[in-house]
């Protein structure tokens, strides 16, 4: 399994990857433009329903959301004390505004809704299929290749990093807050970069030997829009229309 991929798929696995990609992008655009807390609560509900349809692993998904929320809470903790408005409470003599609290909650709901929808629609998709979908949607070929190469060789570099760390431990290296530790970590990063460059040169040479012409051939027959994709598109439009209508009203 590709690192970072969410296991699942469920009913959504039968859909064309392009329809899932477009739906995820449109949902993110719509949700980011909303400010009403009820609307954002509805967006989170829609994302939860989509996650259920995608059959995401509840434990793994919850861990990802908790990691996001932990970072977001730390980042948004200062907003209630910096945004002017009616006082909600005071902490050590510093007043926190209701507008700041509302803004923090809105940003938190937006982030959770968008990330959960991305995990449901894109995280459960095969990464190569996602790259092919981007290409068929008109994304520049260079960007698609960068995505596919990054996806493939992040895992390779991670294994290389683990080999170097194992070699350091075999030489009784332990992390300390001293000059030797920082110098050793610098050597580790430098060696990882050198080996990455060497591997990239070997990859380029191997690709040229195989006649690489700047694009990856597609061996599988491309998927097509079918009736389930039309039903999914209709439901997605209804859901996003509801979000906009609730916000306007």
Total domains, how many?
2
- pLDDT < 50 runs, ≥5 residues: none
Tell me roughly what share of residues is in helical segments: over 70%
Q: SSE order in H/E notation? A: HHHHEEHHHHH
* Biggest pleated sheet: 2 strands, antiparallel
Radius of gyration: 23 Å
Shape: flat
Instruction: Output mean pLDDT.
Output: 81
The count of β-strands is: 2
Strand percent estimate: under 5%
Strand pairing plus helix content: what structural class?
mainly alpha
Q: How many distinct helices?
A: 9
Largest sheet, spatial ordering of strands? 1-2
Question: Between the first and last Cα atoms, what is the distance in angstroms?
Answer: 45 Å
Question: Which terms would index this structure?
Answer:
single chain; two-stranded antiparallel ribbon; 249 residues; 2 domains; flat; 4% strand; mainly alpha
In short:
This protein is mainly alpha-helical and 249 residues long. It is built from 9 helices and 2 strands.
Structural description of this entry:
Helices cover 71% and strands 4% of the residues. With 249 residues, the chain is mainly α. It folds into two domains: 10-126 and 223-248, no CATH class; 140-209. α2 packs antiparallel against α9. The chain is flat, with a radius of gyration of 23 Å. 21% of the residues are buried. The mean pLDDT is 81.
């Amino acid at each position: 399994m590709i690192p970072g991929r969410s296991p699942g798929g469920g009913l959504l696995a039968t859909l064309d990857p392009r329809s899932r990609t477009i739906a995820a992008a449109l949902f993110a655009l719509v949700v980011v433009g909303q400010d009403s807390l009820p609307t954002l609560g509805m967006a989170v509900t829609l994302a939860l329903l989509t996650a259920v349809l995608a059959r995401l692993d509840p434990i793994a998904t919850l861990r990802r959301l908790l990691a996001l929320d932990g970072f977001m809470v730390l980042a948004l903790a200062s907003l209630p004390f910096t945004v002017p408005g009616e006082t909600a409470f005071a902490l050590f003599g510093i007043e926190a505004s209701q507008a700041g609290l509302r803004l923090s909650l809105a940003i938190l709901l937006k982030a959770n809704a968008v990330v959960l929808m991305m995990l449901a629609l894109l995280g459960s998709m095969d990464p190569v299929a996602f790259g092919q979908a981007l290409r068929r949607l008109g994304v520049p070929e260079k960007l698609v290749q960068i995505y596919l190469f990054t996806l493939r060789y992040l895992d390779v570099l991670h294994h290389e990093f683990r080999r170097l760390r194992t070699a350091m431990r075999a030489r009784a290296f332990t992390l300390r807050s001293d000059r030797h530790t920082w110098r050793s970590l610098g050597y580790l990063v430098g060696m990882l970069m050198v080996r990455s460059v060497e591997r990239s040169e070997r990859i380029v040479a191997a690709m040229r030997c195989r006649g690489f012409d700047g694009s990856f051939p597609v061996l599988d027959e491309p998927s097509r829009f079918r009736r389930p994709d039309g039903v999914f598109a209709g439901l997605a439009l209804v859901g996003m229309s509801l979000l906009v209508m609730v916000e306007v009203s």
